[in-house]
Fold this sequence. Notes:
It is built from 8 helices and 8 strands; from the N terminus they run E-H-E-H-E-H-E-H-E-H-E-H-E-H-E-H. The chain is an alpha/beta fold. The longest helix is centred in the middle third of the chain and has 17 residues, at 128-144. The model has no long low-confidence stretch (mean pLDDT 90).
Amino acid sequence: MISIVVPTYNEKDNIFPLLTRINAALRNIDYEVIFVDDSTDETPNILENAAKEDSHVRFHHRTDEKGLATAVVKGFSLAKGDYVAVMDADLQHPPEVLVDMYAAMLAHADMAIPSRFIPGGSDGGLDPWRKFVSWTARYIGKVLLRCLRKVSDPTSGLFMVRRELLEGADLNPIGWKIMIEVIAMCPIKKILETPYVFQSREAGESKLSTKVTLQYLKQVFHLTTHAANRGDNMQLVRWSPERLAKETSEFTHF
Length: 254
């Protein structure tokens, strides 16, 4: 089973479109969707209704803690699946790539990372300023953390990992970039990258801020001395669009 952890903060207009697309993508795959919600708008009510209407949906609303990374770690603790995926609620991470990541897991990857920066991928959903900020964050991470240097898209926040590798990991999330924490602190030996196209946000507002940027820098510098996985023996495999289509054909043709 796949556990899909979705942190939410004021994403009321995206919940049902997201679930509709997840249901369509995974209609022949066992899954659960775990929303960990910090919202101050109507999102908790929408999630409560979604959980009543759809047996795949679970949600946990927090009032005493905030932050994407801590929300994801809470989702990890609630997950029941063999594989745990993390994605945003804003549909910039297209739910259809869940099938791509699942295929990578079946190909014996420890972690699947859809990438905007390999053939077939694109970061076209970002404006020029966001592209510059994203590039800077990737560059800083790769310079300071050896385990990120082989990974083409280490800061996107879209990934799937074997749940057993999360157990016992000393995750100390700061800010938003939970994926670099997982790579640095979990015993990841094989990462499989697949191409995907990052989408434009259709509803809600971006959460990028100066505070988020500073938290990322704090997180990276913390991991320079605390990372358990140095990445020396980590294998990285990349699938071409043609290989990806072949590997996912049994899930996308009915």
